[in-house]
Description:
The complex is a heterodimer.
Chain A: H1 2-25, H2 34-63, H3 69-102, H4 122-129, H5 142-167, H6 193-202, H7 208-245
Chain B: H1 20-31, E1 41-44, E2 49-55, H2 56-67, H3 71-84, E3 87-89, E4 104-107, H4 122-135, H5 142-154, H6 159-174, H7 178-195, H8 223-238, H9 244-258, H10 273-276, H11 280-284, H12 294-300, H13 304-309, H14 311-324, H15 327-341, H16 347-359, H17 371-380, H18 390-410, H19 412-420, H20 431-439, H21 447-478
Antiparallel strand pairs in B: 1-2, 2-4, 3-4
Amino acid sequence: MGKDECKTMLDALNKVTACYRHLVIALGSTSDSQNLREELKKTRKKAQELAVANRTKLTSLLKDKTISKDDRAEYERLWVLFSSSMDLLEVDMKRSLEIGQDFPLKVPTRHLIQTGMTGSTTTVAARAMSVQNMKYEADSTIDTVDLRDLQSEITQVSQMMEEMEMKVQVAPWAVEAKQEAGAELKSNMSVGNSSVGVISICEEEPKEEEGGGSRDAGIASVCAVLVFIVIIAVAGVLGYLVINMS
Amino acid sequence: MTIRNTLRDHGQRYRPRMACLKKTEKVLLEMQDPKTGVRSQPQRLVITTIPHAITGEDIIAWLADRFQVDTQEARTFGSMLVALGYIYPLQDHKRLVIKPDVSLYRFQTPYFWPTQQWPVEDTDYAIYLAKRNIRKKGILELHEQEHYNRLHKWMNHKWDFIVMQAKEQYRAAKERKKPDRVVFDCQERAYWVVHRPPPGTVSAMDYGLDRLTDPNSDEAKTPDFYERIMIFTQQSIMRPRVKSSVSIGALVKYCGTYNNHDPFLFKCLPSNPWLTDDVTYWNLNMPCVEIPTKMRVERWTFSFAELLSDPRGRDDFRLFLKKEFSGENLAFWEGCEDLKWGEAATIKEKAEHIYKTFLARGAPRWINIDGKTMEVTVKGLKHPHRYVLDPAQTHIYMLMKKDSYGRYQKSPVFKDTVKKAICPEEHNFSVAQLEQNAKKRRPSLSPIILRQMEKEQRAKMAANVDITQVMSKLSKQGKEAPPPPKK
């Protein structure tokens, strides 16, 4: 059905927007490289394809006058999702143009910012492109050549957004969200060991919000250690008695 | 000496511009040089090692060397870099200052650099808060929780998008390796500490209101644009010019007179509240204080405008005029001011009241203005507007300035005030006392309460006037009748 199709396409666009933002954040830092520029280019193209597909689908759905009121409310909600994604994408594209121009890769006297990030962003890009491994085939002038493409793409996106505003009359403020406040708190996304470890690493001096958590964890671990020592002591005493008896 | 024409420099009108940002970026790039830049070391954490950490003392030493300044200035400059968000502290991340010891800092990625052309969006902040909620429930601090609730209320239509995007960004971040993830979290957190500061701190990027137009963008050459240039040029030709000797002389005189009264340039007694957090100075200089300070009384002798603009000075002057039985001049002047600055709906009735009280023939508090002004005023009062009483007001003002002001300064009222004026002793706070004062800071009275107090005072004064009206009427009966208005 139209709605489900739309939803999957919007989810895909959302994913690509999030990955693109991650890649742009790595621009100009020490994890910047030719590969990153290529990843940016590919992600951008994918995002644009998805955007165009989403737009045609949603405009056709919204232009249809024969749909019910509930349906229309749902499509308007999807439209707000789409236009917010596009807003983020447009800003990220403009910023990547600016930072890309400021940090050319091939100039030896121009240093990249030592941010502490040294790993590659291959996995993020792979997630965006929904492939297992990324293939890199661009040549070394990608950082300058790509910027021209980027400029034209930015104008394309701005034009598309203006057309959208003109053609579809949707009042974004009238849309009601389905999720209430704190919805993500109920989400069962990983609150695993890795993320808790990340937090305690970030806070060099565990205070306030960390103090509570680490205090509980500390008491629990102390108790565990004590129990362990008691057991070892008991085992040692028994062993000694056994040896004595034999 | 040529004075450069600021004709085409439209950019001058558009403030604020943080020119320091572009300059700081250049300095940042110099710091990255592996040979001549700041020395970096790896940061050893429990499980991982993250490179590119720099110590506070290294930063300060490098800045002092690069700019050839002393350590204190380098430290201030370093603090500015941290406050703006180009460098963030790894320990104690909420205090954006540079510590001249081995505490560690790291450079911020260019995407998160402070910039004026990319405004900080609330959508991004909402996504960030949602991401933190996902990572660990209940991690948001109080002010962040408040922001979250407020954003949920005002951005409700986008909330689905925010939650979806937060989840996707969280998943995308997990794709990276562990050390990079840690660094990314620290970067994002540092960015939001700068742009959404915790309560009690101020963001260094708080530059005031954004202007509508960007001064660096090209303006479209429409006929309107050229017309504005023409008007500007015509006005600059027609503008009257003053000889620089005269204007500079006036400036010098002003500076000489007011030098000791400026808290920026001279110490203010007892102590400057902005520096020592002690509000005695403000309490002693309240608008309706019984005993004014010596400096305040001295300012009244500088010019008549100073005397009238200070409420306490005006009270004193009013007292003097009451003794001289010419209080109606000041009352008329105050009524005119009230008319000029008051609400448009009350203009008509205020003008009528003033006419009946001061200008009409046989009025209870008749003022003495010349015939021509009276004619003009009465004619204007047929269709009253805000500035209808301006000629009369100016006449009365000049009368008071030339006549009463001089006599006031020689009067016993003034001399009494001068004698009673207090000169507070200078405070001498120790460092510990200063810290205590800072802790005891409290906000001052709300402007709403102040306005109410002013209103009550004015009502009290209006009630008092009736008595003096009677008194002046009685006294007038003893004197000869007021002279008829001259033609």
